[in-house]
Amino acid sequence: DTAVSQTPKYLVTQMGNDKSIKCEQNLGHDTMYWYKQDSKKFLKIMFSYNNKELIINETVPNRFSPKSPDKAHLNLHINSLELGDSAVYFCASSQSPGLDLHFGNGTRLTVT
Amino acid sequence: KNEVEQSPQNLTAQEGEFITINCSYSVGISALHWLQQHPGGGIVSLFMLSSGKKKHGRLIATINIQEKHSSLHITASHPRDSAVYICAARPTYNTDKLIFGTGTRLQVFP
C-alpha cells in the first residue's frame, strides 16, 4: 500500500539509449512532480503536473519528456541518455501545488 | 550563491545531545519545508511551516520570517536520527516551485 511508488528502483543503461521511469500515487493527489538529485545530493525540480497539466518545466533538456496519462501517474521518458543524466530521480505528489509533499523511494539511474 | 543555504554541512553528535540545523533563505517565501533523507535514500517530509513553530515528537521546527531563517531541532538525539536533513523554500515568485538547500548530514553515535 505504498503511497508513491516508482519503478524501477535501479536502472543501468548505456549512453544513447531511451528509457522510462514510472510513477504512481494512490493518495488521490492532484499534483505530481519529478525531482533530480545529483551526486552531491542536491535536489532540483524538473517538472510538475497539476490535474494532468504541466505547470513547471525547469530548463530541462527536451530529451526529458514527462507524460501524465491520468492524475495518479506521471512517467518520465528520457531519450538519448547521456553520462550527465546519471542521478537519483524522485517522484513526489501533493494534494495541490504548494502543499506538503509525499516522495517515492527514488530511481537510481546510471548511464555508462 | 544558492537562494537557500544550510549549516552546518556535516554534524556529528553523541546520543542524547540536542541538535540544531539552520536554514537561511534570500527570497520571499510562502512556506518552508524540512525533509529527511535516510541512508537508504527515501525522502520523508517532516514539516511544512510558514510561521512560528511546529513540534512532532522529538523534532521541533521554527521559522522567523523577518530574519529569513528557520531551524530544525532534535531533542534527545538517537542513532536512528542519522540522516540528511534538507530545507526547501517555496518562493512567493513561484509558489509551485521548491528551492532546496544542500542538506545537512547528521550522524548520531551511541
Q: Give a count of the beta strands of chain A, DSSP E runs of length 2 or more.
A: 11
Largest sheet of chain A: 7 strands, mixed
Please indicate the percent range of residues of chain A in DSSP E strands (runs of 2 or more): over 45%
Give the rounded overall mean pLDDT of chain B. Answer: 94
Q: Helicity range of the residues of chain A?
A: under 10%
**Largest sheet entry of chain B:** 6 strands, mixed
Q: Care to count the β-strands of chain B?
A: 11
Radius of gyration of chain B: 13 Å
Average pLDDT level of chain A: 92
Question: Helical segment tally of chain B?
Answer: 0
Q: H/E element string of chain B?
A: EEEEEEEEEEE
Strand content of chain B: over 45%
Secondary structural class of chain A: mainly beta
Q: What general outline of chain A do the C-alpha atoms trace?
A: globular
Q: Share of helix among residues of chain B?
A: under 10%
Quaternary structure type: heterodimer
* Number of helices, where a helix is a run of at least 4 consecutive DSSP H or I residues of chain A: 0
Biggest chain pair interface: A-B, 24 and 24 residues
Distance between the termini of chain B: 36 Å
Structural class call of chain B reads: mainly beta
In words, what does this structure look like?
- The complex is a heterodimer of chains A (112) and B (110).
- With 112 residues, chain A is an all-beta fold.
- In chain A, 0% of the residues lie in helices and 56% in strands.
- Chain A is built from no helices and eleven strands.
- In chain A, a hairpin with a 2-residue loop joins strand 5 and strand 6 (53-57).
- The mean pLDDT of chain A is 92.
- Chain B has 110 residues and is an all-beta fold.
- Helices cover 0% and strands 60% of the residues of chain B.
- Chain B is built from no helices and eleven strands.
- Chain B has strands spanning 4-7, 10-14, 19-25, 29-37, 43-49, 52-56, 59-64, 69-74, 83-91, 99-100, 104-109.
- In chain B, the strands form two sheets. In chain B, strands 2, 4, 5, 9, 10 and 11 form a six-stranded mixed beta sheet that branches. Chain B has a five-stranded antiparallel beta sheet with strand order 1-3-8-7-6, with no helix packed on it.
- Classes of the chains: A mainly beta (112), B mainly beta (110).
- The interface between A and B is medium-sized, with 24 and 24 residues.
